[in-house]
Amino acid sequence: MKVLFVSHSSVIYNYREKLRLLSRQKDVELTLLLPRSWPEAGKRVRTFNQSSKEEGFRIISAPTVFEGRIKRHFYPSFLRYAAEVKPDIIHIEEEPYSLVAWQAARAARKLKTRLVFFTWENLLESFPFPHQQIRKYVLDNTDHAIAGDQEAAQLLVKAGYPVGQISVIPQYGVNPRLFRRKDVSKLKKELGLGPFTAGYVGRLVPEKGVHHLLEAFSMMRNPQAKLLVIGNGPMRAEWVKKAEELKVSPQIRWLAAMDQGRIPDYLNCMDALVLPSLTTPTWKEQFGRVLIEAQACEVPVIGSDSGAIPEVIGKAGLIFPEGNIEELKSHLERLSKSAPLRKRLGRQGRGRVLKFFTNQIIADKIYKIYLQQWNQR
What we know:
The chain has 15 helices and 15 strands. It is of the alpha/beta class. The protein has two domains: 2-173 and 358-376, Glycogen Phosphorylase B (Rossmann fold, 3-Layer(aba) Sandwich), CATH 3.40.50.2000; 185-356, Glycogen Phosphorylase B (Rossmann fold).
């Protein structure tokens, strides 16, 4: 079966792991359509020199209009690419209200092929013209929807999408060979980390709640504890100043966002990974991929109850009500004082990842959807 896979986030090499696994299926001939360039983690990623031979599937690196805009970007020659591939299935990892999703739905209808789309959308929004109309058109012309979490699936049901045509599968998993427990004592020494280090990895934006983590950390009143914050964003300067006001600056290490391949080493420097996300009127946590990356490294995780975080962590971590700084502080103190608890949660976390969240598991689930759609065409 021929599959045309469309995804702007696949500009990142590690995010294409599930595609490499899918392409190993003997009956799958996969072509990836992705933007020629796309902004990721504060830099522009160019894809025109990507090697299809190395990946194991064909890559079409194509120019887009409105590069970097999730809703508005589109491929001027989308239909030409689709007609050239002649896919049996078009699989698009773009939100159903986006212009690219509309292009895919139109192409699927014209070429009489099956359409699968992925969504993280977990808040019911009313979009301005034409995105609300696009969303309805895409849902009306899709054969199967993949929701990134249960809330996204429930939203599809509320929109009238048939329950039997929805699968709940995260967009990305982890490579357990890359994300694993390892000795990073040299790196910890270079960073000046102590016997207990809490950490955060992600964007430095208000909804990620890092200011609450700073407050909770300061309330521990443990001069030996350290906090490792990795990421870029508009709140960095303000939060650095806040750390100074809280008198914990000497205990904090601020690092810029880094390539995905370096993240496992820095996660292994942590004794606890914290994701203190805060729900806003227009956003709540859709998954929190760093949670499963930390769990794969046997690092205990603490998360707020925003969006999908409790669903991801399960019983293999600690949850606190979002915005509850006192409860977050209590979790940090529990982990700082109990090595056995850290070890137990670390093992449970990796076990949960191996059971639900590896790239191989996700690729296998997607392959079953492809077989189903192939048989229904």
